[in-house]
Design a protein that fits this description.
heterodimer, A: mainly alpha, ABC transporter involved in vitamin B12 uptake, BtuC, two-stranded antiparallel ribbon, 13 helices, globular, B: alpha/beta, Rossmann fold, 3 domains, 6-stranded mixed sheet, 11 helices, 40% helix, 25% strand, binds adenosine-5'-triphosphate, binds magnesium ion
Chain lengths: 365, 265
């Protein structure tokens, strides 16, 4: 419960550096808001979209970590396999066996059919999570946490091999009903009725933000339910929870099922703007989990609020760096925005070693 | 009725801690289990409650039977469902959770909502203090309040047998009195109690029967009133006599020949 207090030179250097850094960023953003409003709106919309996806994937990490104390390195594999299953259902099999002319993407699954496919894919993901927990993780209860984490890494390799095989030859489209479309905010409508300027907001940003909102509200409500309270009890003191008759295996299973569902949702969004443009599963889809790790660690591995705040901060940092530092890409290297999350994470950890909302590991005996 | 027969418990496959322990808790009774530090009292509670696995321990010989059914090495949740709940040593309340949520956890095995509600109300009646602090986070409560919460949480399952591991540990004398009264109260409502204590006076004053443990075995047992009168118990647990130099005698030294005398006859 108690946070570790006392003077730590790194912490204080870190926090002064951080204060200066945040002040500089805020001043810069105010400057941009005045001089380049459209670009700023564009940046913020994109950041919100990316941040929401990070927050969703981070939530999956946090749920599993809180219940089991294990960082599940297989989240990326789960994300990809879950998304592939959606591709199989929605595009290959046209569940529920109908296609209609979709105004946004031409021939493709109907909204209803697609929604149903997503639902079935998520159920599949949950089952996959349950199976992995039961077969691979449950027998490891009581073993050193490090070993369990390594086991999840092995699971990741297994899922990845399986998934990579099925996307090697071709992309696997997901039949996203809104495609890569979007709308324009602001701008001016010319005489010919065509809008020029303005900030482009992809539908996938909107969808991701709504999904994240639903996911976080659902988790907050879940944590107040009987099973959710039991899960928090297990997280706090596993033996005491057992002594009260709480079925720890069941709690682990539910955490894994929920974690796999969130990973799959993350995998689906990882095929869309701003992360990718194809709307199809490809090799890179699985990297969504590793791209999310800085958000999880920055927010605090055991904190739901941390997943949300960490996701949004990392999303904002990555997108703004991509936008505002692009003239330096010669010096920084083309892929520099992907490094930014790790830089932000390291700065954050200097100030708060357990993450923004994380709990120091001292309360357990 | 709980019967522990010739139980042997080993930690980490090498440390033999219980060496053929046998105790009984008849229905409706309060049974005290006494013993010095490290005698194996908590290990006994873990063995009964299915919690040895957490500590890399295992019952290698003997049996635990409850109401005629063997429960040795059963899962903790199954044992709670069978009717045995324990209040672990050191209270172990969920400090992050509110009082109300702690009690929800206690009632986890109770599937029926109205039964759960009834237990909840009973606990609130028994511990008015908890009622006042329902919404408070458990970690901020005093030791005594946390002990009451731990007992209340265990009562949420309406156990047939309640195991209490050193409930008086670290509590002021008035609080010990209060806990004592609560145990009597719980017992009068029909719950058997296995009371593990260092505070032998308190335990024996309310128990029907008592066992004294030493290095994993019962070395003495009898009616609580008899034990209270016993010279050894008086000396080593009640601190009523000391040797010429004023120091308490080492338990082991005297113990051996006296025990022989007792058990050989
Ligand atoms: N997890 C464990 N692994 C190995 N040895 C253990 C473990 N837990 C307890 N022991 C040993 O078993 C013996 C009995 O311990 P136990 O906790 O049951 O004693 P106790 O009678 O409850 O003592 P106390 O009055 O101090 O609570 C001790 O010698 C202890 O060191
Ligand atoms: Mg003990």
């Amino acid at each position: 419960m108690d946070r570790i207090k006392g003077f730590n030179p790194f912490t204080s250097i870190g926090s002064s550096a951080l204060t200066v850094f945040i002040a500089a960023v805020v001043l810069f953003l105010i400057n941009r808001a005045i001089f380049e409003t459209t670009v700023l709106v564009q940046t913020l919309a994109k950041a919100l979209g990316l941040g929401a996806v990070y927050a969703i994937v981070a939530l999956g990490f946090v749920l599993i970590f809180k219940a089991t104390q294990v960082v599940n390195f297989a989240q990326g594999g789960l994300a990809m396999v879950g998304a592939l299953f959606l591709s199989f259902l929605a595009v290959d099999e046209h569940i529920p066996f109908t296609t209609i002319q979709n105004p946004l993407i031409g021939i493709g699954p109907s909204w209803f059919g697609w929604g149903l496919s997503v639902l079935v894919a998520l159920v599949f993901a949950a089952l996959l999570g349950l199976v992995i927990e039961r077969i691979v993780i449950r027998p490891m209860i009581g073993q050193p946490l490090f070993s369990v984490a390594i086991i999840t890494l092995g699971m990741e390799a297994f899922l990845r091999t399986f998934a990579n095989d099925s996307v090697r030859v071709q992309l696997r489209p997901l039949g996203i009903p809104w495609g890569t479309g979007g709308f324009t905010l602001g701008g001016t409508v010319g005489d010919n009725g065509i809008t020029t300027g303005g900030a482009f907001v992809a539908w996938s940003y909107v969808a991701a933000v709504i999904t994240a909102a639903v996911a976080f509200v659902a988790v907050f409500l879940f944590y107040r339910s009987r099973m959710g309270v039991a899960m928090r009890a297990v997280a706090f003191d596993q033996e005491a929870a057992m002594a009260n008759g709480i079925n720890v295996g069941l709690v682990f299973a539910i955490a894994w099922a929920a974690g796999a569902v969130l990973a799959t949702i993350g995998g689906i969004y990882a095929t869309q703007p701003p992360i990718a443009q194809t709307g199809a599963v490809q090799i890179e889809t699985q990297f969504i989990a590793f791209r999310t790790l800085p958000a999880v660690i920055l927010g605090g591995l055991d904190s739901v609020q941390g997943a949300l705040v960490g996701g949004l901060i990392i999303g904002l940092a990555e997108i703004s760096a991509g936008q505002y530092l692009s003239q330096f890409s010669g010096q920084l290297g083309a892929g520099y925005p992907l490094i930014v999350p790790y830089v932000v994470m390291i700065i954050g950890l200097l100030v708060r070693p357990y993450g923004i909302f994380g709990t120091p590991e001292v309360r357990r005996v | 009725m709980l019967e522990v027969a010739n139980l042997e418990v080993v930690y980490n496959e090498v440390v033999l801690v219980l060496r053929g322990l046998s105790i009984e808790v008849p229905d409706g009774h309060i049974v005290a289990l006494l013993g010095a530090n490290g005698a194996g009292k908590t290990t006994t509670a873990r063995a009964i409650g299915g919690l040895l696995g957490v500590h890399e321990g295992k019952a290698t010989k003997g049996s635990v039977t409850f109401d005629g059914r063997e429960i040795t090495n059963d899962k903790a949740s199954a044992i709670v469902t069978a009717g045995i709940t324990q209040v672990m040593e050191g209270r172990r309340t969920f400090a992050d959770l509110t009082v109300h949520e702690n009690l929800m956890c206690g009632g986890f095995t109770v599937k029926d909502r109205s039964t759960r509600q009834a237990s909840y109300e009973r606990v609130m009646e028994l511990f008015p203090r908890l009622k006042e602090r329902r919404r408070q986070v458990a970690g901020y409560m005093s030791g005594g309040e946390q002990q009451m919460l731990a007992i209340g949480r265990a009562l949420m399952t309406s156990p047939k047998l309640l195991i209490l591991d050193e409930p008086s540990l670290g509590l002021a004398p008035q609080l010990v009195q209060q806990i004592r009264d609560i145990i009597i109260n719980i017992n009068q409502e029909g719950t058997s109690v296995l009371l593990i204590e260092q505070n032998a006076m308190m335990a024996l004053s309310i128990a029907n029967y008592g066992y004294v443990m030493e290095t994993g075995k019962v070395v003495m047992d009898g009616e609580a009133s008899k034990l209270l009168d016993d010279d050894d118990v008086k000396e080593f647990y009640l601190g009523l006599r000391s040797d010429e130099s004023g120091n308490r005698k080492s338990f082991r030294n005297v113990k051996h020949y006296k025990r022989k005398k007792k058990w050989a006859s």
